[in-house]
Amino acid sequence: MPVPTTSKTLLRDLGADARSPRWAEFVSRYRPMMESFLAAKYPSLAADADDLVQETLLALLRALPDYRYVPGEQGSFHNYLTGILRNKAASLLRRRAAESERDARVAAEPPPPPPPRADEEAAARDEEAWRDAVLQIALRQLLADESVQERTKQVFVRVAVEGEDPAAVAEAFGIERNAVDQMKSRMTRRLRDLVAALDAAPGA
Length: 204
Prior knowledge:
Elements: H1 10-16, H2 22-41, H3 49-63, H4 71-74, H5 77-104, H6 119-144, H7 150-161, H8 166-173, H9 177-199
Helix pairs in contact: 2-3, 2-6, 3-5, 6-9, 7-8, 7-9, 8-9
């Protein structure tokens, strides 16, 4: 499966033209990771993920003409994108809570507030959720790559993903332990390259 690439001018092109054909490129690149991020952070909104992604893309469409990507000041572009996602999800949760309160027609006791967290901690958890989403997308791409032998994929999954003992896996496949280590090393490098390509921030 080919890895989507992002031109350095992608955000600028999208901001300059709301009907740019490059929107298909952007959506193809970021939608799977946005969906995985929502699934990890807001599992209760699984049925609403498509609407939330669409609302986020519309908000981004309105914001891009004035948006300028400055890595040193703003961090990664996906931080900006997940910020919009979190706002949309939080807004939906607030609406649901208000609707539930009206339907119940009783004074519902509010849930306890979440424990206070520093902004750095919240950002770190968002970053971790995004990294997990990117890793899952990259792993699916790697295992779908027809240029990789099926045995190599199976060995990699059992050792690197499922955590089986390399010696036991080598015996199961009738190969040397060193061959298992080599397969794992090659696949790990390819997975790392896929993650880097998926998570590369577009420049302004």
